[in-house]
Amino acid sequence: MGGTGIRIEGLRKRYGSGDTAVDALKGVDMHVAPGEVVGLIGPSGSGKSTLLKCLGAVIDPTAGRMTLGDEVIYDDGWRVRDLRALRRDKIGFVFQAPYLIPFLDVTDNVALLPMLAGVPNAEARDRARELLAALDVGHRARAQPSQLSGGEQQRVAIARGLVNRPPVILADEPTAPLDSERAMAVVHILNEMARRYETAIIVVTHDEKIIPTFKRIYQIRDGVTHEQVAKSSPVAAVALAQHAPSNGVLPGSVSGSPR
Amino acid sequence: MISLAGRDILHSFGKFVFTGFGLGLLIGVTLVMAGVYRGMVDDGKALLDNSGADLWVVQKDTLGPYAEPSSLADDAYRSLLAMPGVARVANITYLTMQVRRQGRDVRAMVVGIAPGESWASPGWPPYLVAGRHLTRGHYEAVADLASGFRIGDEMEIRRHRFRVVGLTRRMVSSSGDPMLFIPLKDAQEAQFLKDNDAIWRGRRRTAGNPTFNRPGDAGVLAAVNDAQSSSNSVNAVLVQLAPGVDAESVAATIRRWQRYTVHTRTQMEEILVGKLIATSARQIGLFLAILAVVSAAIVAFIIYTLTMDKIREIAVLKLIGTRNRTIAAMILQQALALGAIGFAVGRITATWAGPMFPKYVLLVPADSVIGFFAVMAICALASVVAIRMALQVDPAEAIGG
Ligand SMILES: Nc1ncnc2c1ncn2[C@@H]1O[C@H](COP(=O)(O)OP(=O)(O)OP(=O)(O)O)[C@@H](O)[C@H]1O
Ligand SMILES: [Mg+2]
Predict the structure, then answer these.
(1) pLDDT tens-digit map of B295-325
(2) ipTM attached to this prediction
(3) Which ligand is closest to the CA of A23, given by its number?
(4) In a domain, A13, yes or no
(5) How confident is the model over A27-65, as pLDDT tens digits?
(6) Domain range spanning residue A159?
């Protein structure tokens, strides 16, 4: 994919109109390079979720410009016709809660996305299984979501976000339900994935534990972003290294090159 | 692509089968209701078929003998027999009444047939499953199996006892009551004769009338009393035509020259199906409509709740790029699957429960086919509400606040 990763310029979002209008975003500027994981922090009500929804193409921004890879997707109006296909092929979502589909087993929860994009079932499942193995839940591939622990569910959800190799992953508080050890593991996985697949990842978080792991952080206050370059914390780097998945570096079994 | 509907059904299999079972019982009742109607029509047709008649000659301007009372003189058959094209005629009486059987009542249609003629006479039971036909002029009976009588049983009709000598089957009145065949004379007596007290009072009345009771002319009073206590009425004359004769033209001739009302087979069917059971048919029709609405409401409610339980998942499915069409298809397929389970259970229930109903329940394959498509249509319709709700789910809900 190459290109610019995610670039957001002067993005505005106004909810409602007239007296009750809320200006949630008042000119957000942001850039995430391919292979980079950035943090997005800010007090409650500052517009973090709104920004993710705009970028995730589930609500319409009011004005501004958004670029994914080489493609301008929004420029004072959507520039892509099929937003559903955009979400399916270009954006991976990871939420605070895993939101797995309860009536599909773990493999099919992940394989569903490539299937929706028209990939044959067997191939989609192969892809899902590789990714699940890479995320250390390969042994639970045939279980039902309800039979997994919270951390396992979250890793399955991350696999689902990654399976279509999207150039962009949007993660909304992905570590909130996890203890610090598991939270670190999730951050490690996201970093690995970003590096391996040249994915641009935005992680919205309140989680003090993981904030030091980001090299770059955007803080959003009153609908405006402020960039901070984190003083690279040796403590965090050590913590991160300790919480790599048990099989060390992600296995080379994850085949295929990023799209 | 995998079947989302199928996976969801397997996931909540118990709930699904349970609901399908409940729906199935409802559909079973619906099919039985339709079967009751078909049974009534079939009873009517059996009545006409088994009578073996081509024409029914009845009292002028009546729809007799099944739908309205009718009475004719019992010697009318002689002139009818003389009409061109007529092969056989038979006097017949019909009387629906309670017949005593070992201290209990059986509702039955007592048919008076003139004995001594050939077995193929109109009005006679066309076949027996046991025993013999009536041979004596009095106090014998041939009973339909459904009446519960067996050969050798005794029954009480009015003042007389009858012994069952033969059994027949599928001989029922248009309202499904089993038939009891007895000799015509006995039947006339049962239907038209007064009881002893009434006769006695009638005689006193006649005796008090100076016109009949003239001094010195005692013969008049005796003759009048005799006339009053003998019966010479029948309800209808059944006519069998010679082969190849046009029923309508013979009927027209009889109407013209004998001044009776004559019904052909087609007209009788029209009277039985179109008039006699018309109210019942409307009643059943209304029941069917109500059951359809109730089934639709149940399916709609179940599908709606099943979908409500999945709102979050539907939002996620939409967020990750599932088409609306796919989600609508999932819900529709579930509704149809529910309908299919319900129909299967219903059909089995109806087949199994049908014979337990006191009236004849006739399950026509065509009704099942129509029923199947009706169930499917109702389920599809019932899923509309749930589909609309699912399509309105905002994918942004998956991201949350
Ligand atoms: N659908 C909406 N209609 C109107 N106003 C909204 C809507 N959604 C969000 N807002 C407002 O927009 C502002 C930003 O909300 P947003 O959900 O983006 O905050 P947030 O940074 O995600 O907060 P939190 O950390 O609590 O999740 C808030 O003032 C909120 O009240
Ligand atoms: Mg939020």
Answers:
(1) 888 888 888 988 888 888 899 889 888 889 9
(2) 0.82
(3) 1
(4) yes
(5) 999 999 999 999 999 888 888 889 999 998 999 999 999
(6) 6-241
Here the tokens at position A196 are 């391996």
B313/A101 touch (CB, cutoff 8 Å), yes or no: yes
Where in chain B are the domains? 2-44+278-400, 60-193+230-259
Nearest to residue B49, comparing CAs of B272, B233, B262, B274? Answer: B272
**What is the position in ligand 1's atom list of the atom closest to the CA of A52?**
18
CB A133 within 8 A of CB A253: yes
CATH value at residue A177: 3.40.50.300
Please report whether residue A256 resides in a domain: no
Show the tokens assigned to B40: 């009534």
With CA atoms as reference, the chain B residue closest to A172 would be: B399
B256: exposed, middle or buried (C-beta count within 10 Å: 0-12, 13-18, 19+)? Answer: exposed
Edge-first strand order for the sheet with A37-41 is A91-94, A168-172, A200-204, A37-41, A216-221, A224-229
Evaluate whether residue A188 is within a structural domain. yes
Whether residue A41 is contained in a domain is answered as yes
Domain total of chain A? 1
The answer to whether A76 and A63 have CB atoms below 8 angstroms apart is yes
CB pairs under 8 A between A and B: 74
Q: Which residue has the tokens 């979250």?
A: A154
For chain B, the average pLDDT equals: 87
**Distance in Å, CA B92 to ligand 2 centroid:** 90
